[in-house]
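Morning F.,

Quick status update on the modeling queue. The single chain you submitted on Monday has been processed. Sequence for confirmation:
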Amino acid sequence: MITTTLNNRGSMNLTDLTFLRQYSGNDEPFVLEMVSMFVKRTTLEIPELLRATQSANWPAVKSAVHKLKSTINFMGITCIKDKIQLCEDLALEGKDGPYITELVGEIADTCMQAAVELEEQVLH
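Structure tokens below.
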């Protein structure tokens, strides 16, 4: 199961905004802006990542997953941190395309689920 924290309804979350809140000094407008930016960027960048993967454009895959590294830390999506690093390393080497494709699928699914979660729990 890919989870990090309990939400106020007692179910598990993919995200944990503790670090972002600490980083911002509990500046709620800043937190909301960062969450909003994550949701917007995810819905634009994940399809690009998937297209790059389908066309075996490993430099584009490496670049896309590299951009995700800091973002997932701020949003507390720790469950894919190791997968992102592994995917970046494999894409840099251009090795094991089927495994990169599998990793990208897991990363994409998790990021999209996290975006929905944040949209529902934080932005609304």
